[in-house]
Design brief:
This protein is an alpha/beta fold. It is built from nine helices and eight strands. Strands 3, 4, 5, 6, 7 and 8 form a six-stranded mixed β-sheet that branches. A two-stranded parallel sheet has the order 1-2. α1 links the parallel β1 (15-16) and β2 (35-36). The two termini are 32 Å apart.
Length: 246
């Protein structure tokens, strides 16, 4: 999905940070114009992401997880909006899919009125990393991802963008597929996950529990109303799992 993106408008630098996979990834890459970036085995995910951003030479950078896919001509779409609006951040629509790539609905780019305070109350990062394009110059000016967040470095970084009122573009076409399954890193709600979530709340959210609850309620109401197909699949998943929370 990445190799098909090169065009007259876009030149792709494709970096692969392999952490010691045994599924044939390295053998497969030998036939493609990609750059393998040495990544020590056992390196935390956030450190690997930072390594990729530090090595990348492009004007815009996007991170794809091993399960993520770019949609056809996605980078052409992003480049066109970028050339027109010249914002150093682009939040794009993303499509959630299951393990067989069946659609689970799409999430629209975040609303213009979303603030860091409101985003922090949500408890999870609304913007998918695979559908968020960051200018390399802006990334470096902001000091990059905070490596103390082992599970939520993107959540904290995007909240910082909102807090600092960084101008951004919204791309209404789905540019990536986020594959949802039980092994997703974001679903592994271990102690690091809960610690990161609390740190985001303390850093950006209102200090009043009542304010937090009200803001979160209205933001979730907007999310579910704005993304009806995605909302339907979320409700089905919650019913099957025996919880309607979140």
């Amino acid at each position: 999905s990445v190799q098909s993106q090169n065009s007259d408008r876009v030149e792709v630098q494709h970096l692969i940070l392999d952490g010691g996979s045994t599924d044939g990834t390295l053998e497969l890459t030998s036939g493609y114009p990609v750059t393998l970036v040495p990544r020590p085995s056992g390196m935390p995910l956030v450190d690997a992401i930072c390594l990729g951003f530090d090595v990348a030479e492009g004007e815009l950078i996007v991170f794809l997880g091993a399960d993520d896919l770019l949609m056809p001509k996605a980078l052409d779409t992003v480049a066109k909006v970028y050339q027109q609006e010249r914002c150093e951040v682009l939040f794009c629509r993303t499509r959630w899919v299951d393990e067989e790539l069946r659609s689970l609905g799409e999430l629209a780019p975040m609303p213009r009125w979303l603030t860091a305070r409101a985003h922090a109350t949500l408890g999870w990062c609304y913007m998918a990393a695979s559908a968020t394009f960051i200018g390399s110059a802006l990334y470096r000016r902001m000091g990059g991802f905070d490596r103390s967040y082992l599970k939520s470095s993107d959540y904290e970084f995007y909240s910082r963008i909102l807090r600092d009122n960084i101008p951004y573009s919204r791309v209404q076409r789905a540019v990536s597929m986020y594959r949802r399954h039980s092994e997703n890193e974001s679903l592994q709600q271990d102690s690091a996950y809960w610690r990161d979530r609390q740190k985001v709340l303390e850093k950006f959210a209102p200090h009043s529990p009542i304010s937090n609850g009200l803001v979160c309620f209205f933001l979730k109401a907007w999310i579910y109303a704005r993304n009806p197909v995605w909302s339907y699949h979320q409700m089905i998943r919650k019913i099957r799992s025996g919880t309607l929370r979140g």
